TrEMBL record:
InterPro entries: AAA+_ATPase (IPR003593), ABC_transporter-like_ATP-bd (IPR003439), ABC_transporter-like_CS (IPR017871), ABC_transporter_ATP-binding (IPR050763), DrrA1/2-like_C (IPR025302), P-loop_NTPase (IPR027417). It is found in: Cell membrane. This is ABC transporter ATP-binding protein. The keyword Phosphoprotein does not apply. SUPFAM superfamilies: P-loop containing nucleoside triphosphate hydrolases (SSF52540). It is a peripheral membrane protein. Residues 329-344 have a biased composition (Basic residues). PANTHER family: ABC TRANSPORTER ATP-BINDING PROTEIN, ABC TRANSPORTER ATP-BINDING PROTEIN NATA. It comes from Myceligenerans indicum. Belongs to the ABC transporter superfamily.
Amino acid sequence: MTNTSSGVPAIEIAGLDKSFGAVKALDGLDLTVPTGEVAGFLGPNGAGKSTTIRVLLGLLRSDAGTARMFGRDVWRDAVELHKHITYVPGDVSLWPNLTGGECIDYLTRLRGAADKKALRVRKAELLERFELDPRKKARTYSKGNRQKVALVAAFLSDAELYILDEPTAGLDPLMESVFTDYVREAKADGRSVLLSSHILSEVEKVCDTVTIIRNGTAVEHGTLDELRHLTRSNVTAVVGKDPAALAGLRAVNDLQVKAHDGGTRVTFDADNAGIADVLDAVTALGVHSITVTPPSLEELFMRHYGDVIEADEAAADDVAGDGAPSGRAARKAARQAAKKAGVR
Ligand SMILES: Nc1ncnc2c1ncn2[C@@H]1O[C@H](COP(=O)(O)OP(=O)(O)OP(=O)(O)O)[C@@H](O)[C@H]1O
Ligand SMILES: [Mg+2]
């Protein structure tokens, strides 16, 4: 597209509103993805990510605000824009009676391509990397394999902008890492990517910036370094020596120590920025076993927006009177306990 080299953003959304009846799915959303950038798009269920993406794809008309890709209006110029974008949803549907390979060819219009040989070579490479057998009928594919078909087609296309809405839903971790390799390659080729995902580690691996959306509004935007201070991993280890030294490390939070068969069990949250020092210290204690769990998106949200969510829930409780469900009360109590314990 002619505008890509002129500094016009790949995506530029300002003050976007979209309601479904009484539900305000988007409420003044702002989101900019500069050309050549991989942008993570995070948010809890129902935050408005897919609605934003459907507006970008020209599938939904917004109520107010502007949404542009490469400087063009997503609704008015949808036909032209679709020549330059590729889209992978989280729940790929295929033509049941076509083989995976035929679906890929159809999605990429492979037969009409100028350099058929180069495309064939790349297609073979993608099929091998994603371990996808293209000869099977699409109706026989598992969910993960349907995702792979759409991903192979996307990475075969020469789209300038990849719009990916939870594209790795159902992929095993090995395949997720193949996916992140190809996203990196797309970036190296100068393409732009909008990646909606619930997998924070995936976003951390490939995204230059992250936008967090809640209730249809962007509540946080920044580079990963700017947001990294929010992330902590949970570490559980059984060690042979006295773990007192861990308490002195700045990156260790909420340390709990318990006697365990033949050793001591330690559990704590570690700042990701200081994880190398923490692991060195744990290793020095003689590790019998260790589990490191990265923070889920939900945990990130709870740490960052716990107060806001608690206020929402308190308001809901007021409306509901005494009959608030015990699950909600339990979650609130757990968050309050976590806050007391120093978890952000
Ligand atoms: N076609 C529709 N009709 C009515 N309400 C809708 C429709 N599509 C979305 N919504 C509502 O809009 C809000 C935003 O939904 P959206 O699918 O954009 O969320 P999301 O961020 O993609 O969530 P998830 O992480 O679960 O995919 C939700 O409250 C949802 O129920
Ligand atoms: Mg969605």
